[in-house]
């Protein structure tokens, strides 16, 4: 197992993101970067009856090129109700929806002012559910190139990037709610709602020996 990596916070992150947390001894959370558009920082992918759906958190205008911790969520657009409605519609009949739904619903309806705070609380909850005991460490300054010995995973897990950069990760297969063809790398909530306690083992088994 590698020792250290650095990665950004993501919204209801995809399964490979959580595999990173299982793979590395320590992960540093990038807290000093500037906000990057069209990334998993403010969006996630879920599987609905008709298609893969992107849930996007609206960001207040004028938030480009400012520190990630200062990015404000636009709560005027009613996105929380829309996201929760989509999640409930997609996974309400999943075997383990009722086991985890209340925790997730409570976080979303807190209506956090800042994206960083929302994503951090989601991460803390996911780590607890998945039994990953991690001390959360935050970057103290932004460094374009990560220090020697720390694998740079910032923006590696990205809607427009090939996940092949994660040479230790192999997508796990499991029974999903919709469709006959397996869809890879959805939000980890897809795995949780479908597999429940088995999710942590599937994530660990997705880590290939290299």
Provide a concise account of the structure shown.
This protein is an alpha/beta fold and 210 residues long. It is built from 6 helices and 6 strands, in the order βαβββαααββαα.
What topology does this entry show?
Elements: E1 4-7, H1 15-23, E2 26-29, E3 43-47, E4 52-56, H2 79-91, H3 97-108, H4 115-129, E5 137-138, E6 150-152, H5 188-195, H6 198-205
Parallel strand pairs: 1-2, 1-6, 2-5
Antiparallel strand pairs: 3-4
Helix pairs in contact: 2-3, 3-4
Q: How would you describe the overall organization of this protein?
A:
The chain is an alpha/beta fold. The chain has one domain (4-205). The chain is built from six helices and six strands. The strands form two sheets. It has a four-stranded parallel sheet, with no helix packed on it. A two-stranded antiparallel ribbon has the order 3-4. A hairpin with a 4-residue loop joins strand 3 and strand 4. Helix 2 (79-91) runs antiparallel to helix 3 (97-108) and helix 3 (97-108) runs antiparallel to helix 4 (115-129). The mean pLDDT is 93.
């Amino acid at each position: 197992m590698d020792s250290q990596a650095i990665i950004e916070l993501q919204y209801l992150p995809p399964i490979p993101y959580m595999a990173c947390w299982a793979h590395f001894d320590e992960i540093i959370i990038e807290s000093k970067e500037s906000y990057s558009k069209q990334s998993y920082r403010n969006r996630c992918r879920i599987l609905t009856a008709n298609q893969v759906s992107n849930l996007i958190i609206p960001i207040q205008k004028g938030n480009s090129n400012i520190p990630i911790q200062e990015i404000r969520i636009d709560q005027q657009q009613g996105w929380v109700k829309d996201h929760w409605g989509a999640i409930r519609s997609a996974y309400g009949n999943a075997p383990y929806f009722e086991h985890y739904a209340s925790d997730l619903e409570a976080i979303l309806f807190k209506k956090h002012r800042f994206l960083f705070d929302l994503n951090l609380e989601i991460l803390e909850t996911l780590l607890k559910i998945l039994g990953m005991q991690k001390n959360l460490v935050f970057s103290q300054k932004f460094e374009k190139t990560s220090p020697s010995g720390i694998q740079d995973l910032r923006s590696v897990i990205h809607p427009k990037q090939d996940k092949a950069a994660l040479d230790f990760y192999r997508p796990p297969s499991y029974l999903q709610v919709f469709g006959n063809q397996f869809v890879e790398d959805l939000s980890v909530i897809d795995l949780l709602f479908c597999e429940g306690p088995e999710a942590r083992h599937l994530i660990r088994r997705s880590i290939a020996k290299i």
